[in-house]
Specification:
The complex is a heterotrimer of chains A (about 220), B (about 280) and C (about 260).
Chain A lengths: L3 H34 L2 H32 L3 H34 L10 H21 L3 H6 L4 H21 L4 H33 L7
Chain B lengths: L2 H35 L5 H5 L2 E3 L4 E2 L2 H32 L6 H19 L2 H15 L6 H25 L3 H9 L4 H30 L2 H6 L17 H11 L3 H33 L1
Antiparallel strand pairs in B: 1-2
Chain C lengths: L8 E12 L2 E12 L3 E5 L6 H8 L9 E9 L2 E2 L5 H7 E4 L10 H11 L5 H14 L3 H4 L12 H13 L5 E5 L7 H14 L4 E5 L3 H7 L2 E7 L5 E8 H6 L4 H7 L5
Parallel strand pairs in C: 3-8, 3-9, 6-7, 7-8
Antiparallel strand pairs in C: 1-2, 1-4, 4-5, 9-10
Helix pairs in contact in C: 3-4, 3-6, 4-6, 6-7
Classes of the chains: A mainly alpha (about 220), B mainly alpha (about 280), C alpha/beta (about 260).
């Protein structure tokens, strides 16, 4: 026994969420790359494309509302829809972090950075990979993966602390660097927040599969 | 025991008694006829015709033939007319706004009610006046059948109407919604579904012919010979019972004939019961 | 965002009112039924939704004393001017209670085509198979075509009636509470079937069951009686919109179970 059209709608919804996530993922990686390469045009593109991401997230939200209103989902279906709503919010925020990094890049302006970026791209790689894995865990109902992913957030936190200390020493060495340094610290902070958002997504995956609310932070 | 229980038990007791009396009367009548009649029934009783005269000699062969003759000829006249009228009354007249037709239908319905309540001897007198005398058909199976048809047409109309009305409205809607017109719907869906109900009505009216005496007394003549055409006179079994009892000394023969008649009626009713119970099973 | 498409209109009514004698049952209804979509009519009992549905194939003609004003159109043509047999060939109907004829499954499906002139046995066999397949019943009855349609279960009977309706290849299928006499599993099957059918047919369905309207329909029309007990169209819109943001407060009260 199946409700084909309903199941189809749920699949479509998951696909939309997956799609918008991969766009956010792309923006996140690009934001750090353009920051490093001093690509002002790229930064502008990211800021522009975030508008589309926001719209897509709203669309997902509306899709969820429509399904809840017309299909009376219960049990797993209801949890799934609830999770999609929450995850789409998280994704939208991650998109905002990428946009934030692009904005900072614009504020710093063209011209060389005070130091080549090393730890920040590394943080971005880890966070981006976590996001990829988390959304895959969601589409595949993979509870085990969802439980394992949050551990990697620790690496990000360690890297963030490292970056933070490093930047403080830069300020002490040359106080005129203070503005750019603070901005780079803000970039690192944004990526650190991405890690936390991904952990929230993992909590949602576990809730969807088991029905039990968990706190992994 | 309280008062209410006492009242209830008394009431049930009285009803039980009345029920028992009713059953006893029936058992007594049928039993009496059978006890008195069965001993006189032999093969010869079925195969020879009455010989006439006051002694009431002979069997009932010609009366059986006349009875079946009468059933067939009467139904040939009455069934198409009755069924046709019933179809018109239930299937066609209901969907019209036409005032004249509505009036006609209500008059027809009222007429059917009245006719069904008219004593059969009135039909007999009418048959005698019209068919036997005025139309010069004489005492004959034809005259008797026409008069008999007048008696049973209301019965056929009513039973057919009932049968048609018991066909679920959904069948008609379903057929009409597929683009059938009223006639196609009636012919292809409603009539087949009502067939058993209609045949019950036909059998019921055949029973009326078998048991009727008054009409045939004044239209069929009373000849005890085997009829050879529509214009022959004759006597049905029921009529024969009357003649034997009233005009001969052979009361035992009357009883035997009556026993055969009762058996025949019982068989017909059993057949009707089987048909109707099958309908109700089928239509669940 | 809901992308607003411009839909092709298959059927429509224009200022359509219907009277039973002096009683006004439908009040000035103007509505469009989009092609190849499922349009659901919801509303409390007696709001005239069935009466409106039956106006699309002129089933109300059968009731003495019915008078209408305004018009109903099929593909732009006034249905009142059309031959009723031709109209009902184009606009099929499925009823609340499954009503297969007391005939074989084959003869039930072949009934309509035979009426409309298909006599050839092998043509009929092809048509019967195709219709039963479209009604998702073929696999269950392919070896029992000679059996009485009445021997099927309620849900199967209703799918047989759908097969019977599509055997005459209509453009529109009207469904008057097609699942209200069925159990939940059979209901689900009918709903899935409707989703399949809308590729080829335009479907209008009357339902008491709001959830059903939500599940199956693309458009929802909400009807309500006014103070004179005449049925009025309150609003029609994409089902998703009606169920999330209805524009009339009466619609909202009804779909949220606050009355009716």
């Amino acid at each position: 026994m199946s409700r084909e059209s309903f199941d189809r709608e749920l699949q479509e919804l998951k696909r939309s969420l997956f799609q918008v996530t991969s766009e956010v993922r792309k923006n996140l990686a690009a934001s750090v790359k353009y920051l490093d390469k001093r690509d002002m045009q790229g930064a502008a593109m990211i800021i522009e494309s975030d508008e589309i991401i926001n719209l897509k997230c709203l669309e997902i939200e509306e899709q969820c509302l429509n399904i809840i209103a017309t299909q009376q989902p219960v049990a797993t279906d209801l949890r799934l829809l609830f999770s999609v709503l929450q995850i789409s919010t998280e994704i939208e925020r991650i998109g905002d972090y990428a946009k934030g990094i692009a904005r900072i890049s614009q504020k710093i302006g063209p011209g060389k950075l005070i130091k080549p970026l090393t730890s920040i791209p590394r943080m971005q790689e880890i966070a981006g990979q976590m996001l990829d894995d988390a959304i895959r865990a969601f589409t595949e109902d993979d509870e085990k993966a969802a439980r394992n992913i949050p551990a990697r957030d620790l690496q990000i936190d360690v890297l963030y602390n490292q970056v933070h200390r490093e930047l403080i020493t830069f300020i002490m060495e040359k106080p005129s660097n203070i503005e750019q340094t603070m901005m780079l610290d803000w970039v690192a902070h944004n990526i650190e927040r991405v890690g936390d958002r991904v952990v929230n997504i993992c909590e949602r995956v576990i809730f969807t599969v088991t029905g039990i609310p968990v706190d992994l932070n | 025991m309280n008062r209410r229980n006492l009242t209830q038990n008394t009431a049930f007791g009285v009803f039980w008694l009345t029920g028992a009396i009713a059953v006893l009367i029936m058992v007594f009548v049928v039993g009496y006829v059978m006890v008195k009649g069965l001993p006189g029934i032999t093969t010869e009783f079925f195969t020879t015709s009455p010989r006439g005269g006051l002694s009431g000699e002979g069997g009932i062969y010609s009366t059986i033939v006349t009875t079946f003759y009468m059933i067939i000829v009467t139904l040939t006249f009455a069934a198409p007319l009755g069924i046709g009228a019933a179809i018109y009354l239930t299937e066609y007249s209901s969907g019209t706004d036409n005032k004249a037709i509505c009036k006609l239908v209500s008059i027809a319905g009222f007429g059917v009610e009245i006719l069904a309540g008219v004593p059969s001897i009135i039909f007999g007198l009418f048959g005698y006046a019209l068919f036997v005398s005025a139309l010069n058909m004489g005492f004959s199976i034809l005259s008797a059948s026409l008069a008999g048809a007048c008696l049973i047409i209301p019965v056929i109309i009513r039973t057919t109407e009932e049968a048609l009305k018991s066909v679920p409205a959904g069948y008609r809607e379903g057929s009409l919604a597929l683009g059938a017109n009223r006639w196609e719907t009636t012919w292809k869906v409603v009539l087949p579904a009502a067939l058993r109900g209609i045949s019950t009505g036909i059998l019921l009216s055949a029973g009326r012919i078998v048991s009727e005496t008054a009409i045939f007394f004044v239209t069929l003549g009373g000849s005890y010979r085997v009829p050879h055409s529509l214009m022959s006179g004759g006597r049905t079994m029921a009529l024969h019972v009357y003649y034997l009892a009233m005009e001969t000394r052979a009361f035992d023969k009357a009883m035997s004939t009556a026993a055969v008649l009762v058996a025949m009626i019982i068989i017909m009713n059993l057949t009707i019961n089987t048909i109707t119970s099958r309908i109700s099973v089928k239509q669940r | 965002m809901e992308t607003e498409r411009t839909e092709n209109t298959r059927m429509m009514t224009e200022n359509f009112s219907l009277f039973y004698g002096s009683f006004k049952a439908l009040n000035n209804i103007t509505i469009k039924i989009p092609a190849n979509r499922i349009t659901a009519f919801i509303g409390p009992s007696g709001c005239g939704k069935s009466t409106l549905l039956r106006s699309f194939n002129r089933m109300n003609d059968l009731i003495p004393g019915v008078i209408t004003t305004g018009a109903v159109f099929l593909d732009g043509g006034d249905v009142a001017r059309e031959d009723v047999v031709q109209l009902r060939k184009k606009v099929g109907m499925v009823f609340q209670r499954p009503n297969p004829f007391p005939k074989s499954i084959f003869d039930n499906v072949a009934y309509g085509p035979r009426l409309h002139g298909t006599k050839n046995r092998s043509d009929l066999a092809v048509l019967v198979e195709k219709s039963l397949k479209r009604a998702a019943l073929w696999e269950e009855v392919r070896d029992d075509l000679h059996k009485s349609g009445m021997s099927l279960s309620g849900g199967q009977q209703q799918r047989l009636c759908i097969a019977r309706a599509i055997a005459i290849e209509p453009e529109v299928i009207l469904m008057d509470e097609p699942a209200s006499a069925l159990d939940p599993v059979a209901t689900l099957k009918i709903e899935e079937l409707m989703n399949e059918l809308k590729k080829n047919y335009t479907i209008a369905i009357v339902t008491h069951n709001m959830q059903q309207a939500g599940r199956v329909s693309d458009y929802t029309a909400f009807m309500l009686t006014d103070e004179k007990r005449a049925g009025n169209l309150i609003e029609i819109g994409p089902t998703k919109q009606i169920f999330t943001t209805p524009s009339d407060s009466r619609t909202e009260d009804y779909i949220s179970g606050r009355f009716g």
